[in-house]
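EI: anyone free to look at a 240-residue chain?
SC: sure, send it
EI:
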Amino acid sequence: MSTAAIQPGTSECGGTKFHLSAHPDTQVQLSPLLEELIRLPSVIVALIRNAESFEGEQQILLETRKVPVLCIDIVRQLEGAFLEAGGRLRRGDNGRRNTADRAAALGSCLGTGRRTMSLAADAMGLPTHLRRAEEAGESPPYTTSAVLQEINAIKEVLNHQFPQEQTASWRSLVTFLDFLKTYVDNQSTTVPMPDMTRLSVTASTAAFSGNGKYLVVGRCMNGHHARTDSGILNMWEIQT
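SC: here you go
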């Protein structure tokens, strides 16, 4: 089996930032998109760190790769839309409202991808946290039922969100969520808990010490660190 790593690059999503600064009339509409771009790097870091310490089956690493790939595609579509809009404006065309509408829709899809990555990071932490709790004779710090609730919530969003041209991406996310649900169902310590607020493992609190590795199928690569260029966005490249 070939190995592949999801590594951050250096793109800062320049077309998006330029459009927001050049057209303040679209800033309110596109502020959710900007928020997603700001939140995305911390989720990437959490996913990488949890993958480094992951103690479960390697298949989940293979399946998880689908989600960052989807986010890459959405970001590239955003950049393409804004660059194309810039060209139209230089030619005297005025289609920025259509561009903003398109970007807002893509930003919503990006948010779903980001939520799914965060969910994958949480799921990767399950084996370690449950084992440590069992060894200490304590109740688990969070329960698998909370993860299952989030899976169902994201699937409900997907049923109403993705436009026609994104159907392949939609199927990819649904397939991953179904796999993740099966994986979580197989954990042995599911405890009923209706209150989602007790889900303690989040992108900001996943307490694994990173030692410079990237998410890899079956192994980790040393010698590199995740970066968050300008606090806005990291891109990834798939290496084989």
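EI: The CA atoms of residues 3 and 217 lie 5 Å apart.
SC: 👍
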